[in-house]
Amino acid sequence: MDSVNPSQQQATPSFVELFTPKLVTVLREGYDRAKFRADLIAGLTVAIVALPLSMAIAIASGVTPDKGLFTAIIGGFIVSALGGSRFQIGGPAGAFIVLVASTVDRHGVDGLILATLMSGTFLIITGYLRLGTYIKFIPYPVTVGFTAGIAVIIFASQLKELFGLNLAGKEPGDLWPKLVALGEAAGTINLAAVAISLLTIGAIIALKLWRPSSPGMLIAVCLAALAAALFGLPVETLGTRFGGIPRTLPVPALPAFTPELALAVLPDAFSFALLGAIESLLSAVVADGMTGRRHRSNCELVAQGFANMGSALFGGICVTGTIARTATNVRAGAYSPISGMLHSAFLLVFMLVAAPLASFIPLAALAGVLAVVSWNMVEKEAFRALIRSSRGDAVVLLVTFALVVFRDLTEGIVVGFALGAILFIDRMAKSVALEAHEPFAVDDVADATNGDHTDYNNRTGTDPDTVVYRLTGAFFFGAASTVGTILDRIADQRRNFILDCSAVPLLDSTAANVIEASARKAERAGVRFLITGASPTVRRMLRAHGVRPPHVAYAATIEDAKALLRSPASGKSRLK
């Protein structure tokens, strides 16, 4: 790291400052009627978008649509009230569909709710340990790859509803068996369901082009429901499959708990927490980029944790920050987290008032909504750019994508992150250079000097008994082997060896050990070893690993080191 003047350093924020919700910050700044009006309009806009999405995501996740609404109402309210972002909208997210569905399949709804509660605990701990900053260090190819992989899985999960297929047995969870089962059921296509799906998708796209600011998804679902009712189309609806949605919130209750169930869902809870942290912080970063504001990462994680616990108590599913709804909130003119709280309040009103009408919504229409969502999730330009940019980035991207689609979401993230880290280490190692430092001659010197180079050496600062090498770049374990081999080879070639570290911003313990070994080898060979230009941080690391007088000497510059060597009393006693 570059050295910073202490007067330029900012004081470390206190615990209270780090974990003060943005809602409190906004209210301290002053909140008037005009700002409330802006939040009111934004909250209503986001609620209209979230209404069909929350139900569609819940159904795709293998639970009833009301659980999606409970999640958006309870979880979304807590995220906005306690969060570290002004504009974050919390609720059920498409990224969780795969994980939630697999958890329900293996452990049932009780296991899902318990895993959600546990994941909230993990998120709170992660936030209070201030690990949010590190979670954001996920490589860009990994985020693009796993987002694209999730989109593929979401779309595949909606094929049954899009075509109105009747499967002989339970729909497989894995992609390839799922496609095989759907192919075998191709003869049961329901043309009415296909028509509703196409009407929904077409309406969303048309409204996006014609009236971008309109709530296209809700309008499209309403049109599909109206068409299905008017023409008596034989399609499944929320009413025929689920009996509609309730008109009230459930009474909060603790989920079923046994030590065996808690142990069984522990991996799922960790997966929920990891993905929730990544998705939430990515969403907050997107909001920062759109507004110029800055969120508090760890405060946001704590809020996400409490939101998941609250959602679980009301029978909801996983809560996270949602990029699309957060972006909608910003575009709608939101000013503060109150818009997110109002979004939850509006959803509650919609559920209380319009619950009977929801029974007429065709499942094919909600599948059409998720089909559009999955298409929009894929960062197509970023995907193409990463494929073309470098072989390393392309490998990280494609491996992450393939593992998410064909194996497991968490495995894809972990392996992708590991590959990204290896790629970074390789690139950083190649950026470290050790080269000879040869100053330019200040003037011409005659060739014939009778073998006496003293005058030339004095005027140019060169010395045939002294070799100077400059180390540049971050010197760490990735480059230790290569640089160490070179140092061992040159450290005993002259009487004096100067290693310039003025261009070394970072040096780790492995690198310090390499330099210490080279210094001791030089000492045994009678070579004086000097280090110049080391920053206080680098020098502190070197001294901690034994690179100190009398084995080596430190000087501010190469010229100072040479002056020290030319001194009549330049023995080891002077090399300090």
Automatic annotation (TrEMBL):
Keywords: Membrane, Transmembrane, Transmembrane helix. It is a multi-pass membrane protein. It is found in: Membrane. It comes from the Bacteria. Its main location: membrane. CDD domains: STAS_SulP_like_sulfate_transporter. The keyword DNA-binding does not apply. GO terms for cellular component: membrane. InterPro entries: SLC26A/SulP_dom, SLC26A/SulP_fam, STAS_dom, STAS_dom_sf. GO terms for biological process: transmembrane transport. This is Sodium-independent anion transporter. It comes from Phyllobacterium sophorae.
